[in-house]
Amino acid sequence: MPPPPEQAQPAEPAEPGPSDISADPPAGEIQAEPDVGEQLQESRLQPYDAVLLLSFGGPEAPEEVMPFLRRVTAGRDIPDERLEEVGEHYFLFGGRSPINDQNRALRQELHGELRRRGYVTPVLWGNRNSDPFLTDVLREASDAGVRRILVVTTSAYSSYSSCRQYRENLADAVAELREEGRELVVDKVRQYATHPSFGRVNTRLVTDSVRQLDEPDDTKLRVAFVTHSVPVGMDDTSGPGDGEGNLYWHQHDELAHVILDEASATLDRSLDGALVYCSRSGPPSQPWLEPDISDYLRQIHEQGVTHVAIAPIGFISDHMEVAFDLDTEAAETARELGLTMVRTPTVGVDPEFVSGLIDLVEERAAEAEGQNVAHPAWPGEAMPAVCAPGCCPNLRESRPALCGRD
């Protein structure tokens, strides 16, 4: 059982508390350009009082590893002995996941981009499974006068675990606060795997990785597009309830094909590759999406391939799945096989990606104000910000979810 999925960028100094809703961070963090400060709007990004970056979370010290894993696997009857095996992955990195530092960095960049566009809307940060916990952040925001929040998740694709589960956690948090007499309205930007900025940045990064490999023979080079594996049943039901399913796989597959086509055209080559997976967990009897990245590396080695670019397009930052599954395990497999490997960076805090997220924030704000707005997509079709009934269902139990019509 690999580390639990961390859906989320180099470490940055710690920011102020997660629910600090002041418009201006302390000196030395985010500084507006001299001419920008004079142009800031008097109001925030209407109709929202704050933007919330919502992520999976991860431990930040060895003593936090087991409590974190117990929270992630609650209700699944996984014994501590098995969780301790998973915990060893974290202990290889000092018992600290990189994900929270990455979220601090992304939060800072999102705030900076909002300021560059003339907004003083604060950006909050909360996690589903570790401190700062989502409910605590929303409670503190409510105490500070926040009434309407727009959520940006660190998960780009459409499936239960990468979308609806976030919506369920939001519903739980808002319901708990309502019992305390606190009323919050929470909206969310649409899933952004098909947003042009996400595709363009990934294309540029993969193109650069192929250049780094410096192997002119296309038959000896492959691009492995990696994402988190999910149960086949979860993929089969991903997407709107009245659709064909398999939207999780389809979004990745479309993006991988577009990247190969664009990189081939840019480099005047005929590149080949495949969509592969990492971080499979669950009982052996349960089918998950395959092939595993290490199995794929062995397969292409037998075919005479000598160079491979590993592109983690399923993730937005270099968190534990990337650090352990790719930079540790897959890299070791490549060394054993004698493959020359380059690991493509994730989109992280690339300015074009950050700008695209704020485009989505502005898009959702305009929708909430009743405006008709465009929903750019490349490749594929744009997902709605308000999910359709039955979209990416919970196959284990029926639970309420926010930001949808069910």
What portion of the residues fall into strands of 2 or more residues? Answer: 5-15%
Q: Helix count? A: 12
Strand order of the largest sheet: 2-1-3-4
* CATH architecture tag of the largest domain: 3-Layer(aba) Sandwich
Q: Please tell me how large the radius of gyration is.
A: 21 Å
In angstroms, what separates the terminal alpha carbons? 32 Å
Number of strands: 8
How many domains make up the coordinates?
2
From the helix content, strand content and strand pairing, which structural class follows? alpha/beta
Low-confidence stretches: 7-20, 22-42
Largest β-sheet summary: 4 strands, parallel
Return the CATH class of the largest domain.
Answer: Alpha Beta
Summarize the structure.
This protein is α/β, with parallel strands linked by helices.
Task: Report on this structure.
There is one protein chain. Helix 7 (196-213) crosses helix 9 and helix 7 (196-213) runs antiparallel to helix 12 (351-368). Mean pLDDT is 90; it is low at 7-20 and 22-42. This protein is α/β, with parallel strands linked by helices. Strand 3 (148-153), helix 6 and strand 4 form a beta-alpha-beta unit. It contains 12 helices and 8 strands. Helix content is 40%, strand content 11%. The strands form 2 sheets. Strands 2-1-3-4 form a 4-stranded parallel sheet, with helices on both faces. It has 2 domains: 34-191 and 349-368, Rossmann fold; 196-343, 3-Layer(aba) Sandwich (Rossmann fold), CATH 3.40.50. The two termini are 32 Å apart.
